[in-house]
Amino acid sequence: MSDRVVDASAEAGPAQGDWALAREKRMHEIILKIASDGLHVLDAKGNLVTMSDSFCASLGYERHELLGKHISFWDASFQPGTFEERMGSLQEVNDQTFESQHRRKNGQIIDVEVHARGFQVEGEALLFCSSRDISVRKQSESLIRLQAGALNNSVNAIAIADATLPDFPLVYVNPAFERITGYSSVEAIGRNCRFLQGEDRAQPELMSVRVALMSGVPVKATVRNYRKDGSMFWNRFQIAPVQDKEGGLTHFVAIINDVTERKLSDDYVRLVSQVFLHADESIFITDPQGHIIETNPAFTRTTGYNREEVLGRKPGFLQSARHEPGFFSKLWDMVLEQGHWSGEIWNQRKNGEVYPDKLTLSVVRNQDGTILSIVCVSSDITLLKAQQNELELIALHDVLTGLPNRALLNDRLSMALADARRFGKKMALCFIDLDGFKPINDQFGHDKGDQVLVAVAQRMIATLRATDTVARLGGDEFVVVLSEISNEQELIATLQRIMTAIALPHTFGDQEVVVSSSLGVTVYPDDEVDAETLLRHADQAMYRAKGKGRNCFHFFDVVDERNAHLRTEGRTRVEQALESSEFELYYQPKVNLGTGQVLGMEALIRWNHPERGVLLPREFLPMIENTDVETRISEWVIETAFKQREDWKIDGLDFGVSVNLPARHLHTSGFSEFIGRMMRRYPTEPAPNFELEVLESVALWDIPQVTQAMEACRHHGVSFAIDDFGTGYASLDYLRRLPVSVIKIDQSFIRDMLTDREDLAIVEVVINLAEVFCKEAIAEGVETEEQGIALICLGCTQAQGFGIARPMPAPQVADWCRQYQPPLSWQKASKNRPARLTSLPDKIDWSRYTLGSEN
């Protein structure tokens, strides 16, 4: 809002108007003189029209020096041209308060707060300004910011507690507190610092801290505190009270330091000091010039010199005459250059005795690399040397027999292998274990057993060539390295000589004892492996010899080992395939030969191998037979078939599904419970016709156990079929006792039934047995129309095989079921079945059963 100064009322007299104007002018002059703020008026161009004395004083100018000056003379933020813009905005918003900086006459810059308001006098736009020096306030604000920055950026944790409240709650913590303790300010504020002590509040220092706080006096202490994650840290803190102007206690300020590393360092120094004093090793410390400045008690015990005798001396007085001249001078130079040296020397005690000394010299430097001292640690190894000499004698030989031990055997074996490779020779490795040795120890004692081992060692040495090696691994195990063999006959003869020598009787008084031996043999380069593997293979062959009845030898079978390795690799790949969902179930229909009704589907596993294509079961199942992988795949097959059976039921295809069941899975603990879970997980109404097929050999494995497992599964609603019937040795009693519903005639009999009277008779007998025992018979492997006619004539109407359909993926089953029609000959044969086939299969006129005409 603009103001307009108006003259006195028109009704007032001239004298009265002059007096009022004079009075107002005088008042304005007094205000400008006594005002504490810097009052000043600017015209529309920013030139100073009038001002108060305080304004002049704030800038250090006389009145006449400022009058008419542009605002930019004392305020650099208002340059000519910019003032007019600001003036316009002031007219719009009436008044404005802002901060600026004024330049005093002496060049000093002061911070000011300016309040500006536009007004008019007789049409002239003017700006009234009031400025106040806020330099002190700005300095206080800056100081507060600096203090806040110092608190926030301090490496020490700082916490402030309210001393006016009973529990001294925290009112401020800085970021360092949060970093050291792990607690955020939100979590810490309002709580007493005791929460940092956790349950560890019985520390003696805490009592003195509490007393000091209650008394309002400063206190220092080092206590155990605990971070938010539960880890302990040593807190060395000092707490200072804060008082108000009247001396009343208002706050406590605590400076907290994590001194864990320093505390551990102090503890470490104390520990090192104790180690120095109580160490068994002789320790002396020298200055950089080599003068001894400290020794420990062990030094006196080892050398015979007291501490006082050696301080200030160089350690040359310990030298013996067993080293070359200049040895110790070179050693010292090496230490100073490399910072470390360790080795064995010969030193001399005070009494003149020379002794072996294990010496370690280490240079200690400060941070700039200057050498402070050299630490010398030495051990009298006289006893160790004596033991070492003794050990060297026995390190490579068996103490009892004097034969090479494992270490020397490895060396000899490596040399023999290298020789065989270089010259293309054959060598053999024989692992020998004595048979019946333990009873000798038990009956006659270990002394007699040791005599037997010594005698066996001597006999083998006498039997073999000087170039061969006989070694004892321990116990009653020996190894023979035959460095060069000409042929297999020579090797066998050598092995037999070894066995004969070992089997010679041993006499203890009037008693004789005999031990035999089991030998495992492997031959290089037939078994072309490294030394360690060669020894392992000979050991494996020895266990095979044990398994064959002992007192014999067995050659390591390289081909068998390779096949076992391939089986292991194959089993691993199959397991990976299961994890990668590379398996798929194909389904082969089982039908009624005469009507064409689809009775069910047999689930058959296929492997969609990424490189080899679709693999049949015979190409991978043998690799996992009787393993856990086989059981896992069987579970996958069963669950997948259950789910597929449920999907077909939803699509209107109502027939059963059968799967082949491995023996291991049938006998697995919890198998029936697994079947129960599958039935509940994939229920169908009416109850699904789910069939488990077991081989005849599996069914006959353990009749009581198999029967029990089958009955447990039948309780959940599944049925069983005997697969490949006729290939085993099932008796009629077994067939009667087994709880199976279906007998599947093996395809080997179906394949040749039209040309082989015996196969035809077997098929007919199996069909009749199934009828007698009230079981269904299904023929496997039907491939021709004639085979189907023969089966119908024999009374078997259920079959499966390539002549009906090959196994197919699940998505193809529905289309096949809709399109399938049995051959017309099968339909006719089922209606005109003869009472009996009386001719040989190859003499039968099958055209009688074709539907070539309606007659």
Write a structural description.
The protein has 855 residues and is α+β, with helices and mostly antiparallel strands. Helices cover 40% and strands 26% of the residues. It is built from 30 helices and 32 strands. Strands 23-24-26-27-28-29-30-31 form an eight-stranded mixed barrel. A five-stranded antiparallel β-sheet has the order 2-1-5-4-3. A five-stranded antiparallel β-sheet has the order 7-6-10-9-8. Strand 6 (157-162) and strand 7 (170-173) form a beta hairpin. The longest helix is centred in the last third of the chain and has 23 residues, at 628-650. The chain starts with 13 loop residues before the first helix and ends in a 24-residue tail after the last helix.
Count helical runs. Answer: 30
Task: Give the termini separation.
Answer: 126 Å
Q: Structural class of the helices, strands and pairings?
A: alpha+beta
> What coarse outline follows from CA principal-axis ratios?
flat
How many strands? 32
- Contiguous low-pLDDT stretches (5 residues minimum) are 1-12, 850-855
**If you average the pLDDT, what whole number results?**
86
Largest sheet: 8 strands, mixed, barrel
Helical fraction = 40-55%
Radius of gyration: 54 Å
In terms of DSSP E residues, the strand content is 25-35%
Largest sheet, spatial ordering of strands:
23-24-26-27-28-29-30-31
Write the layout of secondary structure elements.
Blueprint (H helix, E strand, L loop, with lengths): L13 H21 L3 E6 L4 E4 L1 H7 L3 H4 L15 H12 L1 E9 L5 E13 L2 E10 L1 H19 L3 E6 L7 E4 L1 H7 L3 H4 L15 H12 L3 E8 L5 E12 L5 E10 L1 H19 L3 E5 L5 E4 L1 H7 L3 H4 L16 H12 L1 E9 L5 E12 L5 E10 L1 H13 L11 H18 L2 E10 L1 H8 L1 H18 L5 E6 L2 E9 L2 H15 L3 E3 L2 E3 L2 E9 L6 H17 L5 E3 L2 H22 L3 E10 L5 E12 L3 E3 L12 H23 L5 E5 L2 H4 L4 H11 L8 E6 H4 L3 H12 L4 E7 L6 H6 L4 E4 L1 H5 L5 H16 L3 E4 L5 H10 L3 E2 L8 E2 L3 H7 L4 H8 L24
Parallel strand pairs: 21-22, 24-26, 26-27, 27-28, 28-29, 29-30, 30-31
Antiparallel strand pairs: 1-2, 1-5, 3-4, 4-5, 6-7, 6-10, 8-9, 9-10, 11-12, 11-15, 13-14, 14-15, 16-18, 16-21, 17-18, 19-20, 23-24, 23-31, 23-32, 24-25
Helix pairs in contact: 15-16, 16-17, 20-22, 22-24, 28-30
